[in-house]
What we know:
The complex is a heterotetramer. Chain A is an alpha/beta fold. Chain A has 2 domains: 6-100 and 149-183, 3-Layer(aba) Sandwich (Rossmann fold); 200-314, no CATH class. Chain A has 11 helices and 9 strands. Chain A has helices at residues 17-23, 27-35, 49-54, 72-84, 93-97, 109-119, 171-183, 252-255, 273-283, 290-298, 303-307, and strands spanning 6-11, 37-40, 60-66, 69-71, 85-91, 134-137, 140-143, 147-152, 162-164. A 5-stranded parallel sheet of chain A has the order 2-1-3-5-9, sandwiched between helices. A two-stranded antiparallel sheet of chain A has the order 4-8. Chain A is globular and about 65 Å long.
Amino acid sequence: xxxxxxxxxxWCASCGGCEEAVVDLAEKILDVVGLVDIVFWPVAMDxxxxxxxxxxxxxxxxxxxxxxxxxxxxxxxxxxLRRKSKIVIAYGACSSWGGVPALGNLYNTKELISRAYxxxxxxxxxxxxxxxxxxxxxxxxxxxxxxxPRLLPIDQVIDVDYYIPGCPPTADVTWxxxxxxxxxxxxxxxxxxxxxxxxLCDQCPLNESKPDKVLIKDLKRPHQVIPDPAKCLxxxxxxxxxxxxxxxxxxxxxxxxMPCTGCxxxxxxxxxxxxxxxxxxxxxxxxQDPEALEEVVDKLPDxxxxxxxxxxxxxxLGGSVRGNKS
Amino acid sequence: MSEEAKVGVFVCHCGMNIxxxxxxxxxxxxxxxxxxxxxxxxxxxMCSAPGQDLIRGGIKKNGINRVVVxxxxxxxxEPTFRAAMAEAGLNPYLLEMVNIREHSAWVHSHEKKRATExxxxxxxxxxxxxxxxxxxxxxxxxxxxxxxxxxxGVAGLRASLDLAERGYKVHLIEKLPTIGGRAVRLGTIAHxxxxxxxxxxxxxxxxxxxxxIVTYVNSELEHVDGSVGYFKAKARRNPRYVNAKCTLCxxxxxxxxxxxxxxxxxxxxxxxxxxxxxxEAHPHIMAIDPVACNKCGxxxxxxxxxxxxxxxxxxxxxxxxxxxxxxxxxxxxxxxIGEFGYGRSDKVLxxxxxxxxxDPEGPTNGKLAVSGSVPKNIVFIMCVxxxxxxxxxxxYCSRMCCASSLKNMIRITQLYPDTTIYxxxxxxRTYARRDEKLYELATESKIKFVNFEKTPTVNVGQVGxxxxxxxxxxxxxxxxxxxxxxLAVGMAPSEDLSKVxxxxxxxxxxxxxxxxxHVKLRPVEAxxxxxxxxxxxxxxxxxxxxxxxxxxxAAKASTLFxxxxxxxxxxxxxxxxxxxxxxxxxxxxxxxxxxxxKTVGEKYRAEVDRALCKACGACVAxxxxxxxxQAGFKDTQVLAQVVAISERRTGS
Amino acid sequence: MKQVVISPITRLEGHGKIVxxxxxxxxxxxxxxxxxxxxxxxxxxxxxxxxxxAQITPRICGVCPTAHHMASTKTLDDLFKVEPPDxxxxxxxxxxxxxxxxDHAIHFYILGGPDFIxxxxxxxxxxxxxxxxxxxxxxxxxxxxxxxxxxxKMNETLAGRAxxxxxxxxxxxxxxxxxxxxxxxxxxxxxxxxxxxxxxxVLKDLILSNKDYVSLITSDAYTHKTYYMGLVDEKNHVxxxxxxxxxxxxxxxxxxKFDVHEYLDQLAEHVEPWTYIKFPYxxxxxxxxxxxxxxxxxxxxxxLARLNAADGMATPEAxxxxxxxxxxxxxxxxxxxxxxxxxxVVEMIHAAERLRELANDPEIMSPEIRKLPTETPREGIxxxxxxxxxxxxxxxxxxxxxxxxxxxxxxxxxxAARIALSVDKAARSFIRGGRIxxxxxxxxxxxxxxxxxxxxxxxxxxxxxxxxxxxxYDKDGNLTDTVKRNxx
Amino acid sequence: MSESFEPKIVVFACNWCTYAALDLAGTSRIKxxxxxxxxxxxxxxxxxxxxxxxxFRNGADGVLVxxxxxxxxxxxxxxxxxxxxxxxxxxxxxxxxxxxxRVRLEWISASEATRFAQIANEMVEQIKALxxxxxxxxxxx
Lengths: 326, 652, 488, 141
């Protein structure tokens, strides 16, 4: 019998949602297990990193990696998997663009650590202890992996062949991608697989409700307005990022009457998701008077968290450039 | 694109203009090191014949397929170099000009070293973009030298005549049963003794007799497709129910049982459901008011020539035109009932109604009769509906009301010497050469001018009407008993504009008039090519200004029609349908209405009419999917320039 | 002296590792559980819109995103001082019950359960979901998979998404429940309760019927006398979505019962420089290091703790199962870590019954699901019982509702100290003379896994299968020996 | 150090006003510091915020977006679209830690060559005071 393709699945700085997303394939997962040899999947299967290290380079057909690179071990693991794999696929928002944890890139690691261990109100830490890369505990040296200065999408550490978007990718998107992978019918390297080539509006049931001219006079945050469920949320002043976000989820959030927050990331021709999203959003604010404009923009105190919720690490600047000033 | 980019860089000395500051040798050396650069040359004058030969040679001999010319501003010689490329058989849009004279040599002559460095950077950026340039084809439309004129008032008539006299065919569409518009209803024309009708009669005749003009009265524009050079219009001609056989015997009028207010006299008189709009109506036959008519058929019975057909149906008219002239005019400001007593007393009239009263052909044959008698005390309240003097008033000045009020005051004092006239004004604006004369005349003819800051009030009582005003000069309150109060109302945007805007892609100014391409520089053109704006459709105008505007649009249209074909610069926006989600963000970005939403399968997609696109690129910057791109200024092309600001080798 | 690093593969990249320090005789001197990863949510929450926290914080953990979503949403109610309509609260609790049931189920059958269902002594290769399938049979396995899928789909509809829900807003939920959905829910409600009963039966037939298992569960190695914490309703019954926090001491006496707004008076966090996880403890009792008993402030959470901290269950069948459990295990409080598996099943029944109740409550169809906030936000605190224990969110904002400070006290953290105890105890009792064998590994592994420690929360790794290997270093740090499980 | 530092500033100039103003500066030999690299676009409304961020990423210390005065846009209101985008853009850049002096949106008509020169000098001075941006972008992983 011919050898089944070898598949590895691995996580870095992720929440586990991507693993759950794979489990959500439900009965399909059994098909997958039937078609491939899973050589590495820490969550569900009993294989050791050592075993993977022993495999000849390029012997894994494809590695699906979720989570961004936050600590040194992540770096080691993705580099190792790259060597072992013919194809590396970034699975989910975090490994593709950093995801939510990349919002940490707005601060430096010192700030991240001191907030958690020296500032929060529930602490009782008089001697101001905090995790150390290496410390001596009654004669034993214990080591902790240090945080990297920034959380990185895996393609800033290794060469990535394909991307499966979403926070997390939906079961359908995952399934489409796996089918493409197993059928060998893959698009050019660097492509996004499993999802749509068009923005979410293409899949959104409310797109038809849009007037010819999409213009707004005011911005609203979701808790400030009860939207008309039959009308496009954007035209009601809500920051729905559907127009800038890759389709694939079938507008799950909009169907729950909440605006799209962009977890499927940018489309192929977009270099910086947040800048593009901000550009279209600003474009439709139908005001000419600078003061009036400032007033409306004031209603959005966190443009970065809003427009770069999932893509900060992959943005042009990658995070804060305050340098040492904070 | 498939073939590998081979860039030729041509650096010009421009005599000493460039070479005097910039070390051209060094720059050329540097250019040779750039990715995709096949060769780099320098020459004393690149725009000269030998200079151009270098370029042509580069293309022919060295197989260069991209050209970067580092010289003067593209506004100088871009056409020159494009031509040279075309001659050598290379698409002229594969040229990138780097402006190292105006933008470097001439402004940095004090820092030669750094100017040279900057020049290298500029060329590096130019090359980076050139590598990604794509061949573009000019887009041409066959010109249809015919115009569609919407509106048969002074502006539309003037435009139609001018064009017809130049030999261009005109389709003139008028909603009412007669052409002539509102000016024909003016009792008297300022600085003359004649009425509006007399003034315009020759124009009406000329229009009717001109073979190049096809007039459609009782007609409305329903739909317009296409763009400059080739508009396809659909109009509907509503039934008039009376045809050319009509001899104006007026038997029908006699028997017609229906009587309604005559809009021609602004409601001061009545007419039948079948009527002649006015003495000089064109066409000169009866018309039936479809709203008023009860189809009783009495008129049909008495009509000898059998000119009446109550069964007449609307007709569709199809018109193809290279340009559109919109001349739908204005609507007089219509005061809300009660404003200055309007509608509460027949002693309160608008300026337009006064015009009718003073028209020898008017309802009173020119006799100034207000609720039966000639008024002794007449109070003119100026700026009604203008300068924001009331809540409902427009913010702007209507320009014509001062002059025409004064004109009428003077006429009244001449006709009825013992009337007393009060002119309550916020401001008197009799601008320009001749109108100021009216003001002088008026002040001589013992008219009492009262300037107000606080808007006057009109009290309508059992006994009579009085006007209360505080004289801003004397600082005292006056109560003036009035036999007649004339409200000098201004001009408001025509009620028909919303209909017009639903058919033709034109924008609206904050005041509600149609917006010009440029207030000062392109006052009679709409932003979209081939659409012209005549008369009060863009702002209040008097008869003089309106005919000027009419002629101006005709001139503009002629210039357009004089071309065989209309050329569109190829750097327009284009959408890749496969990537378009139909989010419609782009549509509102376009001031020219060049983008529309079409349905493909179930889904929306954006569509660009290249003929309408002016290549600003606003939709491209807004397009959240990158589906919309501008030829010659694609994201990738501009970004390549941006990335090339750094020395880091890219794309090599 | 020697240092032994036990690295569960799944933890190798920073998801938790165990370091055992040997004395010169090679006996365990001390064992440390290290959780070496931080993502810094508490910091980067700063500057965000408060209302976005309900969608940002679920990204702490994709295993229990609904817990963070609800904790956050309740915190937002408190922050914006807006009381959601009853229908909204019920919809939230409905979603939450669906989630609790589904999350507990995946642990019992796939992640934790195999130890018992297949058996702790069974060959390792069989001790996974496949083994479970073989043991319980295909159709039952399918029943389990289908049940989970149904529940996940339901929450995708009700909450927008099953992973990282979106309906929660200050003052309500974004989406009402349709009548069709209610019909579906009623059906699911009944199925869910059946499923709960069935699971209890599986527990009894396969686990409790087996003397060895029971003695294992009650063995000293898995026993720690700590405080227990959980949410209770006004009747002191277990409640996952709302209520007061109740803490009982190691003797089962009520130690404290308080509103979450007082959590800072009751709880504090201890920091050790050798791990990224923080160790919460009872502030009044104080931090006494890694030791149990009444004098140690170490408290524990999760199913067993919740049942210990409550006087009973709010639903009948769950109450019966609750009583049976305590009767069998010798009365409250139960200190056997492994009893968590049983407690978890009791809670599954509770979740299922609650789900059925709410599905049959006509009010969930009400269109009154939102109140718009009018107050200026300043500070908000909220709590829910996550599957893995008490979860507290605490935000401070400026007047525009932008987060100034955020504090998150996460379920697994509360258990961190007790887990460390278990690990230490297991290591001490099984590492002798540098001899380290499979049995010891199983013990440690099982101790660890019983908590279903979702380090995705404390850090971010999924619970479940944890193969071990051990590196034995000499004092100069040279690798002298390695022990691995499942070597041929 | 910041003495020798010469900021690199990218100018996105609209074809009709600002680009023409730069030409005029040339023909009238108005001197300004050679720190400016001009990129021509047809209208300031074409400037995509992505361009600005990419400019910074590739070593720009400042960016000037310049177009026609309000009301004078060759494309009627392209400059207003630029205004909207840059207004929001600036808010984001602040959060990234990029000082507001580094990004400017100016209306420079075809005749305002001197005004451009004056803005140019001002920007160079301000950005010199702020120091180079590039080092702050480097994060070693």
